[in-house]
Amino acid sequence: MPARTDTSEARIEVRDLTMAFGDFVVMRDLNFTVRRGDIFVVMGGSGCGKSTLLRHMIGLLEPAHGEILYEGLSFTRASTEERQRMLRRFGVTYQSGALWSSMTLAENIALPLAEFTDLSEWEIRAIARLKLGLVGLKGFEDYYPSQISGGMQKRAALARAMALDPDVLFFDEPSAGLDPISTRLLNQLIIELRDSLGATIMVVTHDLASIFMIANNSVFLDGISRRMIAQGDPRELRDHCDIPAVQKFLHPDLESRAEARADG
Amino acid sequence: MVSSPISAASARVSFSRTTDATVTVRLAGEWSLHLTGVSDEPIERILDTVPPPARIRFDTSALREWGSGLVAYVEILIEACDVRSIAVDRGGLPDGVRRLLDLARAVPETEGARRNVQHPKILERVGTVSIGYEQSVADSLNFIGEVILAFGRMMRGQARFRSSDLMLAIQQCGADALGIVALISYLVGIILAFMGAIQLRQFGAQIYVADLVGVGVTREMGAMMTAIIMAGRTGAAFAAALGTMKVTEEIDALSTMGISPLEFLVLPRMIALILMMPLLCLYSDLIAIFGGATIGSLMLGISLTVYLHETARSITAGYIIGGLVKATVYGALVALSGCMRGFQCGSSSSAVGEATTAAVATGIVLIVVACGIFAFVYHALGI
Predict the structure, then answer these.
(1) Is A240 inside any structural domain?
(2) Of B292, B331, B287, B273, nearest to B183 (Cα)?
(3) Angle (CA) B124 B126 B127, round 5°
(4) Nearest C-alpha of chain B: how many angstroms from A55?
(5) Which of B107, B160, B252 sits opposite A94 (nearest CB)?
(6) What CATH number is attached to the domain comprising A65?
(7) What is the DSSP letter of B110?
(8) Shortest CA distance from A57: residue in chain B
């Protein structure tokens, strides 16, 4: 596999991050490192702040405390121009897809290319076609987002996120609203992207099958204590971590109702 | 022996106390979802008797049918017993009810989740809203400032938006609005002329209807009516479109891609409306004058030529240009309030509706305020 550089290299660092809306603290004291080439999963129960963390990572929300670093450079303290430069190396797919509904799929992918590259119209069209082909949507260039299914929208959103060959890809709940087969295909695609492009990938999800299939590193956010309570390879966490909340999350089948009641 | 039967539509409950401090709850009849007539008042009365009962049990031998109504009733009963440390023997309940009760109690009530819904006092509400205004004024000024900066970047040729978006916006707030603007303007012209005609006819001064309509429309009404139509039509559309884009994270997708949503989405819409408003206003002026001429010829017997000649004599280029300047400013205000409310939209579908309403309201308020300022300035300048 090409392009997988030194895997111990820190690509993303989160230091002492506290996220809050006004006085309401969502998560405090997050500390973790994502290495180059990792598929890093942020897991935790619904509503614990996973997506909020992602929105902090891409600058849509500002940390109450702490900072986020990309390749050792502070994103939090960067100037607007530096931040724009960093953002251009990211690709983000949103929970709802968030394709621009007034544009066709090809135009969705073409927009970032037209904005940030010197490619000719012909080249842009070719790249848009290629990216749609990569996610299995060749031939759908001139469809509007509302004319295709939810699963296809997600894949098209991934094609758009990949438009500028980003080296960091963020996924917000990629499997939400997808059937198991589409989810598996999307997961294979995520692994393929890491292996072929050497991208660093951060995924927010609570889908166990996806977590075990794709992740090689993770962090577990606990909604009750509002802290991260575990990190590491999810398979190892499953087999060796003895924190009850993590066990309960990663072993839903072993869990009986009685235990749920006893632990609250 | 205490007994308090309650008659419902067909649900019946009675309590009987035996000597060994056990209360038997007899549930009978059909317990559907409708709890009509069954109140929790007898529960309190029975449980609070002295000496308090030690335990309660259920007798459901006469129960014919049950639904959530029964489960909810039993749940309330059990909660009341828990508070008073009275033992509950669920043995007498149907199996399904017991299972549903287990399910309802499997996850304990989340601490702090229950909200004390208190209707705030009027003063408190006035205070909360007033404090909120401070923030919203700051947000609005911030937005206006950013729009001005974006225009600055556009002047220096650094702003980025697609010309196809601009063309689409021009079509939507220009050509597509011609029908409604024509209809409203024609009617306004007719109404002005009609009202004027009734008064002026008393003095034999019918011909001045042409002056009235011409001057009124070119100086004030043309710009004002067009602006209000555009606030309801285009301002609302801007707010709804941008608000929905906010809900579906499309605006987030733009900003994380390093594309300024303000340049990409707001500039084409503002430019389109600012360019189209004076044209629509001119069009509205013309149609309204023809509306006046209709009344002039049908009601007052003034020929079209005479009417138009009188109109041309009464209005000056200054009136028309003054009206067009107003229209341009109104256009900017309508587009600004539409885009601003869209950007300030919350993240739910009801928020889009609120943003749309707010856009129209803000737009019309701004138009009227601007109209007042224009009246003063034009008077001072002698236009």
Answers:
(1) yes
(2) B287
(3) 60
(4) 9
(5) B252
(6) 3.40.50.300
(7) P
(8) B256
- Bridge pairing between strands B11-17 and A73-74: unpaired
Q: How many domains does chain A have?
A: 1
- Alpha-carbon distance of A40 to A13, in angstroms, equals 12
3-state percent helix, strand, coil for chain B, nearest multiple of 5: 70, 10, 20
State which residues form the domain around B348.
154-381
Question: SS in 3 state form for A57-71?
Answer: HCCCCCCCEEEEEEC
H-run or E-run covering B312: helix B304-314
Distance CA A195, CA A212 (A): 17
Q: Nearest-CA residue of chain A relative to B165?
A: A102
Task: Judge whether A121 lies within some domain.
Answer: no
Residues B38 and B166 in one domain: no
Provide the number of structural domains found in chain B. Answer: 2
3-class DSSP assignment, residue B277:
helix
Residue of B161, B247, B256, B262 to mutate, testing the A interface (most A Cβ within 10 Å of its Cβ): B256
pTM of the model: 0.76
Is residue B301 located within the same domain as residue B227? yes
- Which of B103, B73, B77 lies closest to B89 in space, CA to CA? B77
Contacts of A96 in chain B (CB under 8 A): 248-249
pLDDT in tens, chain B (383 residues): 344 444 445 777 888 877 677 888 888 887 776 655 566 677 777 777 777 788 888 888 888 888 777 888 888 888 888 888 888 888 888 888 888 888 887 777 666 666 666 777 888 889 888 888 888 889 889 999 999 999 999 899 888 888 889 999 999 999 999 999 999 999 999 999 999 999 998 998 889 999 999 999 999 999 999 999 999 999 999 999 999 999 988 999 998 888 889 999 999 999 999 999 999 999 999 999 999 999 999 988 899 999 999 999 999 999 999 999 999 999 999 999 999 999 999 888 899 999 999 999 999 999 999 999 999 999 998 87
Q: Tell me the ipTM for this assembly.
A: 0.79
Does some domain include residue A129? no
B250 → chain A, closest CA residue: A98
Provide the shortest C-alpha distance from residue A264 to chain B (in Å): 7
Residues 6+ away with beta carbon under 8 Å from A125: A106, A110
Residue in A85, A134, A78, A84 with CA at minimum distance from that of residue A109: A134
β-strands A65-70, B63-66 pairing: unpaired
Cα–Cα distance measured from residue A200 to residue A193, given in angstroms and rounded to the nearest whole number = 9
Residue A219 in 3-state DSSP? strand
Query: In the numeric block, which tokens belong to residue B141?
Result: 């000024």
Both tokens of B241, joined, read: 């479109």
- The three-state secondary structure class of A26 is strand
Both B290 and B356 in one domain: the answer is yes
Q: How far apart are CA B76 and CA B42, in angstroms?
A: 12
Phi, psi of B294 (to 5 degrees): -60, -50
* Pure H helices in A105-243: 105-116, 121-134, 150-161, 180-197, 208-214, 234-240
Cβ separation B256–A95 shorter than 8 A: no
